[in-house]
Every structure is written in structure tokens, then in C-alpha cells.
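Morning run. Coffee first, then this:
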Amino acid sequence: MLSNIPNATIKRLALYRRCFVELDEMGVKRIQSGELSQKIGIDSATIRRDFSYLGELGRQGYGYEVRVVLEAFNNLLKTEDAQSCVLIGVGNLGRALLKYFSSDKFKKRVFRTPVNLIAGFDTDESLVGQCVGELPLYHLNDLKSYIEERRVTYVILTVPPTVAQSVATSLEGLGIKGILNLSSTVINVSEDITVHEVDLNMELETLFFYVFQKEQAKH
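And here it is:
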């Protein structure tokens, strides 16, 4: 159960799963923890400790079978019961995400994502009725009824910072479990909704500080 897994481990689970999906697509059958450590930049001891929460996945000297690890992730995340997700804010970033999630490369993956993006919403009338890839676009006024009809439980928020809070507030009481907030501002919602904040500007600054720290250490 995810409730028994430390937060630090949970933050690394998506990285592990993405790595093993890529290994499977490359035809790799098995990987040693040392090789995995070099590939993703996490020490072997941490990897083994994190994987212990998923069950007995590897053997000393043998490593991890890629398909076995992926099945463990699927069992943990219950990917056969994938949750529906919509994107709000079809600007440049929103459109790019819609294109990615509707791409053939993403859809043809053997191991499904636990959350499926199914539609986009915006206030721009000219976008209504169009599609990005195979994903349809609707007016924001239709969001409430769409969420209720399709039992949507996740939202990707890519609206301008000035309207992010009002949009987030409008999601209260609709059964939304989680929001991936890419609007570059902090939003406040009830404890019933989990918010994951991703600020691309902040991530770029963090990268700068890592590089700066590494360069300073050389002197």
C-alpha cells in the first residue's frame, strides 16, 4: 500500500517506473542494481530499500527482471483501473502536453499509465470542437458536467497564474482527487485534493544552482 511507503520513496517511484518502461521498450530483460544506479543516478542501497516496499523483486547477483518489476508497479498502482484526467488551459504548454499524451509512442506502451488524459478545456471559443491529436477540446463552462459524467478524478492545470486559484476553487466538490499544477503559482484547495506543484521556472533555477555548486566545488 502506498500509505505505508515513505514520501521520499514515493517521489522516486515515477522515476523508477519510467526507467523500467524504457528498458522494456528497448528489449532489456534484466538489469543489475549497480547498472540501474548508474542509469538514474540513485545509489544501489537506496534503490534496494525503495524496491523492498514493492515485494521480493530481485536476487543478489541476479538483479531485477524488467517485466517482474513493471508488473509489481502495475499491481501497486492498479493500472487496469486507470483514472481519467483532463487538462485545463490549452495554451502553448497545454497544447504540447495534449500532443504528447495523444502521441502514438505514448499510447503504444505495453505498460499503461495509471492516469489517462482524455480531454482539454479552455475559455477560447475558437478552440471548442477542435482536437489536439485525438483529444477533444471543450469550453470551460462544460467542465463540471463533463467531470461528473466521465467520473474524472485528476486535473492538469496549465492556466495563467492570475486565474489558477479561481479555476482550482471551482473544482472543489466535484470528486477531484489530484491536481498537477503547472500554472507557476501556488494554489490552495481543501485537504480532499492532493496538489503537486511543478514550476518550470523554479526547476530551471534549481538546475542552475546544481551546476553552480558543482563548478564551485572544482575551485
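The first helix runs from residue 7 to 25. Good start to the day.
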